[in-house]
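Protein 1 of 2
SEQ + STRUCT:
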Amino acid sequence: MKNKLPRVWLSRPQRSRRERFATYACLLAIFLLCEVGFEQRQVQFQVKVQAQILHATLERQSLYPQAAAAMWRKERWLALQRALLTKKSSPLAGRVIATAQEASPIHAAAPKQIQKETVGEIASASSASSQEQVPLKIIISSPPETPVSSPSSFSSSSSSSSTSTFPAFGHAAYPVSRVPNWGAMHSAAEWDRSYGEMAREDFVSVPRYDLAVLTTSLQELMANRDANIPAVTAKLFYSTRYYGAYNLDATEYSGQHPGVDLKLARGTPVGAIGGGRVQTVTRDSNMGLYVMIEHRLPEGTFFSIYGHLDEAWVKGGEDIAAGKAIGIVGMTGATTAPHLHLQVDRDDGVRPHIRYWPASSGAVDRTVAQRSTVNPLTFIGQYQ
């Protein structure tokens, strides 16, 4: 045939069996290397997350004599790291905690109650009218093996429930017992650390909410930074004031923010400000993952809201005591840095209660603001 091409043009290059085997072996080696690398990165990520959660848990278990507290925390954290390195794939947090406790030189002094629940002595921060730290004993349960990170279904108390069955409010407590000493940190490498990566000396007591200090110009404070470290820490910690504008120098009622933003390290455990019942655990585009707790007091019903969490350790309908850990600080929702949005709403009679947020922009009228919400720091100080 005239148009028939030579056979050699149509045929595929012939390869020897050895060449084909070498090609397949190279492809298989590349595939296995990619698979092993992916598994290693996955294990490293899981170990890092477990380390942060378990370190936060162990930090709260301070039941031991004050003289040995520093050594105990150091030893159990080192033991925890050793346990994670030797048991990377262990899914049970309790097993790792037990390993860390057994490795401690003063494990024999630990009380037996630690097997059921943990009672921590955490100093609650001072109220707006007092500079002294008031010690408060609170109950903090260990987080569940699988923390709640997805929205839970709404569950609230029935209107027919009697007041006697609803959990008591107790004494109000700050959501955290200590804060990073932001004013003493000088680089991004320092202030970008998570809660588990910070050392004990990186923290200070919760600063006082003093508007005279918080509205002092940051530029003025930084002019003599070493002398103003406590003031800088307070200013950064209370980064957005009650109904304040998104400006570090702004005062209250200068914006539309119906709560207080607390700058904290990512992974910091957050406690309930009072006893009550979890109304809902959900998320939205603005507040991210948040927990809403109903509190009943003689003056009325209030709802505390904890926003931008990375994880929630409670579920809707759960009864909790003041200070119980409900989750950890994160960066979910509309946020540019890890912080806790703390808000207290007044009861409007609607069930389920809807988180209040102003519809208008600009400065808000004080009367209108106080009709729907309460300054959470004033609320804590009043019922402490």
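Protein 2 of 2
SEQ + STRUCT:
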Amino acid sequence: MKTYCILAIFVATLATAGYAQPGDEAARSGISTWAERADYAQTSLLGLFWQPYQSGYYIVNSVYPGRQFVNPRFNYWWMAHLLDVFADNYGRTRSSDCLLRMTQARQAMLDYGKGSLHNSYFDDMEWMALACLRIHQAVDSGTWKDDAITLWNDIKTGWNDIHGGGIQWVDTLPASKNACANAPAVIIAARLYQLTKDPQYLQWAEKIFRWLHDNLVIHETGLIKDSYNNDNPDWVFTYNQGTWLGACLELFRISGDRKYFDLAMRTADYVVNDSTKFSPAGVLNNNEGGGDGGLFKGIFMRYLAQWMLSGALDAHRQQQFATYFITNGNSLWKSALSRTAEGYGVFGNTWSRPRPEPQPGRRPVAYDSSVHLSAVMLFELLCELERNNLLSASHLQRPQ
């Protein structure tokens, strides 16, 4: 994860002429199921952000509703999550168009990397490897599996003995030991072990997990620090809690060891039940803003959903987490959705209120594709949970 200033580069390629009023029912009319909401969010993603890039396609960094401008910067790790939501969509629809878009996005990534998926940020490569493994699982393509293994071989070179181990965040800072470069690495290694049965992958997963547990877990709460020796409570982010859940789940699947279940549930229970910082009124919100932070909530929800899909939860948590998902989905749809004049949906990065209206005479706030991706993730995850009959445990069974 990296923080950038918004580039002062605008390209006159997109005509999005302002918002409807927040809460405008026209933005929601006739869309009553989770699948319809996911379709609308996916269609809006393509309409707002999907652009040609050399011999492929990519999503631009941001658009400016009310102006004919976009910020065209290529963002590698956001593209990995684009592939994730395409994989979500393909799992739901089996659309050949979706398969094509995954191929086009991969080609853009290769064009960006001059023929390689390598990146100087280890966490960025990890997000891409995770997306490749998911697509391989969906389409059984050796290309995506090979990409994941090639990326893993680069990722593991980030391990060093500074601070007792861990994978560094970026190649120029060997002492940078962040949760975002370690928890996803556990997931990748564990999934590669399950895919290949090669024990080296499991050894890596267990080694990285031990370092992560010993150095980044806040043992008083079960939450995950952002980085080594960073005890700032304002730098405890939702996505790191999510990938920790994912790391615990993969090792629980392999070993059946209850300790992984208990560690994960301590973290999940804290986030879901924390009415002050993480989940006021039952809606995930950690004031993480746009930019890279726009992706954080979607990542947490993805790995919480994986635990629900695992079949390992007790009935109480299954009901509680189902209600949590439905509450978030309803809030995002009813309270945070506005639309452009062309009918595309835009979502507030706070899932309980819409984006601010553009003010006359002022430059509008950019609408980041990262924020939109999190919204797509939430609706697609709700569809997956519904397909697996996992929302029926909640008393809130239908979209509102």
